[in-house]
Design goal:
The chain is about 15% helix and about 20% strand. Residues about 1-30 and about 230-260 have low confidence and may be disordered. It has helices at about 1-15, 40-45, 175-180, 210-225; strands at about 35, 70, 75-85, 125, 145-150, 155-165, 170, 190-200, 230. With about 260 residues, the chain is an alpha/beta fold. About 45% of the residues are buried. The protein contains four helices and nine strands, in the order H-E-H-E-E-E-E-E-E-H-E-H-E. The chain is globular, with a radius of gyration of 24 Å. The protein has a six-stranded mixed beta barrel. Strands 1-9 form a two-stranded parallel ribbon.
């Protein structure tokens, strides 16, 4: 009876003892945990602008100069339209018949010396160096890695061409397609709502390696939002082959192609 009483007493004490609740696990703290990078993640990091350009850019030939180039320690960025660049090698959708402003050259070339293929390679266009802004001084060159965001989609790309010194907001046919934007160089693109983030001192070699740009873009984007290398592709992160879906018209008219 004594043993039974002691057992019951111990059991009662255990029930009355304070319970230790499990500590919530931080969503991003676990080593090796994979965080799904979204458009919102990246846009949150570029909500404020510390301007690095000495002036602002127009988005099209006859618009006011309203777009600054902004900077952080890790990247430069701007928010503009998306005009479709088809320059480079002639293809079924990028040629003189499809694009009156088509030129068969790009400022940067593939490892074999050929010009880039705008239809298959996601790339962006940066303004040619000027007193307003010299992209090279910001650690941006041909092959630098970029994240382009439109609505809930992210398309990783490389810097592949240069454009007019006073205009900003242009990307390749493949970039537009990957973002769900109409890639037609005549009537496609979008008039606003596109964010371009270029990671400083980054590079993809060879420049035409789309898969490498995708992987490096995800890695740099993770560092940019502060979650390290444990990442997964976000919404629209690898959507280049979805091109025909969810497209819209409305880009403005650009005064000619790139300087390259």
């Amino acid at each position: 009876m004594r043993v039974q009483s002691l057992t019951l007493a111990a059991a009662g004490a255990a029930l009355l003892a304070p319970t230790t609740l499990p500590v919530p696990t931080p969503a991003l703290a676990a080593s090796g945990e994979r965080h799904r990078i979204t458009a919102s993640d990246l846009l949150d990091r570029v909500a404020d602008c510390a301007q690095v350009s000495k002036g602002r850019y127009r988005t099209d030939a006859y618009t006011a100069a309203t777009v600054p180039v902004c900077g952080t320690r890790q990247a430069v960025f701007w928010k503009a339209d998306l005009d479709v660049d088809c320059d480079g090698r002639a293809t079924a959708h990028c040629n003189r018949a499809a694009d009156p402003a088509f030129t068969a050259t790009t400022a940067y070339q593939q490892s074999n010396g050929r010009h880039l293929n705008a239809e298959t390679l996601p790339y962006i266009v940066v303004p040619a160096p000027s007193g307003r802004w010299d992209h090279r001084a910001s650690g941006v060159r041909g092959g630098s890695v970029a994240a382009v965001i439109y609505k809930d989609r992210v398309q990783y790309a490389v810097v592949g061409d240069t454009g007019p010194r006073d205009i900003i907001g242009e990307a390749s046919y493949a970039t537009a397609r990957g973002l769900g934007v109409n890639p037609d160089p005549r009537v496609g693109g979008v008039p606003s709502g596109v964010t371009y983030i270029v990671f400083k001192d980054s590079t993809v070699k060879p420049i035409e390696d789309r898969a490498a740009a995708e992987e490096e873009g995800k890695r740099l984007a993770a560092q940019f939002i502060g979650v390290g290398d444990g990442v997964d592709v976000g919404v629209g992160g690898d959507v280049g082959d979805r091109g025909g879906d969810d497209v819209r018209d409305g880009a403005g008219v650009r005064d000619g192609g790139g300087d390259g």
